[in-house]
Specification:
The protein is an alpha+beta fold and 86 residues long. The chain has one domain (2-80). Helices cover 22% and strands 42% of the residues. The protein has helices at 14-22, 27-36, and strands at 2-3, 8-12, 38-41, 46-52, 60-67, 71-80. Strands 1-2-6-5-4-3 form a 6-stranded mixed sheet. The longest helix has 10 residues, at 27-36. It starts with a strand and ends in a 6-residue tail after the last strand. This is DUF4258 domain-containing protein.
């Protein structure tokens, strides 16, 4: 898998793959999430990407990502909400 948005190949950790299965999140949904929706950075190399999918009832789907020589997907969350900044 490759992410056009970041221009990097994607590595999905074992943990993230397990969460995808548990939460019924497909690779197609994961790909759409990486390419299209909101990104928030923790620092230069760690970030979250979240997206609401029509037809899903579990709120935002979010991935925790590390920017390395590849885009490393650490985990996949559902029922996610952004923390209020301030």
């Amino acid at each position: 898998m490759h992410c056009q948005r970041f221009g990097l190949d994607v590595h999905i950790t074992r943990h993230a793959r397990e969460r995808m299965v548990q939460r019924s999140i497909s690779e197609a949904e994961l790909s759409a999430l990486m390419e299209t929706d909101e990104v928030r950075y923790k620092d230069e190399s760690r970030l979250w990407i979240a997206k609401a999918f029509k037809g899903r009832c579990d709120s935002l789907i979010c991935i925790a990502v590390a920017l390395e020589d590849k885009l490393v997907l650490k985990t996949v969350m559902h029922h996610f909400s952004w923390e209020v900044e301030g």
